[in-house]
Specification:
The structure is a single chain. The protein has 243 residues and is an alpha/beta fold. It has a single domain, classed as Alpha-Beta Complex (Spore Coat Polysaccharide Biosynthesis Protein SpsA, Chain A). It has 9 helices and 7 strands; from the N terminus they run αβαβαβαβαβαβααβα. The chain has a 7-stranded mixed β-sheet with strand order 3-2-1-4-6-5-7, sandwiched between helices. It is globular and about 50 Å long.
Length: 243
């Protein structure tokens, strides 16, 4: 491979938060690795297992024996979605950082749609769902959450609830993330905006969840997210803390 071609290929960390995703996580790791071998000069795949109680960890250990670019982060106990994302960002080492969920509702191969948008003047390539495939009640709650977040926090992206993001490491280095619930997505995007990150948006496909069930859509987690969202609003909007 020519030196000029090497320089054109990016350096990428791909990570997946995983919680009881034994039926989908292996496929994501394998597909991500296959894509990165072709498009990246330097790459790693990271899985942050957030205290899974199924066979996820055994599956991941078996994968790591064959894939030397796979890095595993095991939380001793469940920290929540935000806790898993913070670990992923902490341990990602490459110039670009991509993440999506470990439940298989997004096609990791569609990172190929994001990469061409990461031009020299762009810091974040944000996916948006072309069509959402979820239970009706989840779609209603998600729509309300999305519109509320855009209004209250002045979020500019069209789909705050789409966890399919490619971010420059240097943009992430400018912000600190604090929240452990799903509200971290609003915190992430809002802080990137306030620190001057330039966004591009790309439509991606969203698929029905074939295995397991969402860990977010229960009363305890939704209540915690609402409480943390109020706290986030106080810190970002009232006290203007963007550290």
């Amino acid at each position: 491979m020519a030196e000029s071609e090497l320089k054109l290929k990016p350096s990428i960390s791909v990570f997946f938060p995983c919680y009881n995703d034994e039926s989908s996580i292996s496929k994501l790791v394998v597909e991500a690795s296959e894509v990165l071998k072709k498009v990246a000069r330097d790459w790693e795949v990271i899985v942050v297992d957030d205290g899974s109680t199924d066979n996820s960890r055994k599956i991941l250990r078996d994968l790591a024996e064959k894939n030397f670019n796979l890095k595993l982060i095991f939380h001793k106990k469940n920290r929540g979605y935000g806790g898993a994302l913070k670990s992923g960002f902490k341990y990602a080492t490459k110039e670009l950082v991509f993440y999506t969920d470990g439940d298989g509702q997004y096609d990791v191969k569609e990172i190929l749609k994001l990469l061409p948008r990461m031009t020299s003047n762009i810091d974040v390539v944000q996916g948006y769902k072309l069509k959402r495939h979820d239970a009706f009640y989840r779609m209603v709650i998600g729509t309300l959450y999305h519109h509320f977040s855009r209004l209250v926090f002045n979020i500019k992206v069209r789909d705050i609830d789409c966890d399919f993001r490619l971010i420059r490491r240097k943009a992430l280095n400018k912000i600190n993330l604090h929240y452990d619930s799903g509200v971290i997505c609003v915190e992430l995007v809002k802080k990137l905006q306030k620190h001057g990150a330039k966004f591009s948006e790309v439509g991606v496909h969203h698929y029905p969840r074939l295995y397991g069930h969402s860990q977010f859509f229960n009363f305890r987690r939704i209540s915690k997210t609402l409480v943390e969202q109020i706290d986030l609003w106080r810190n970002l909007i009232i006290l203007k803390r963007y550290d």
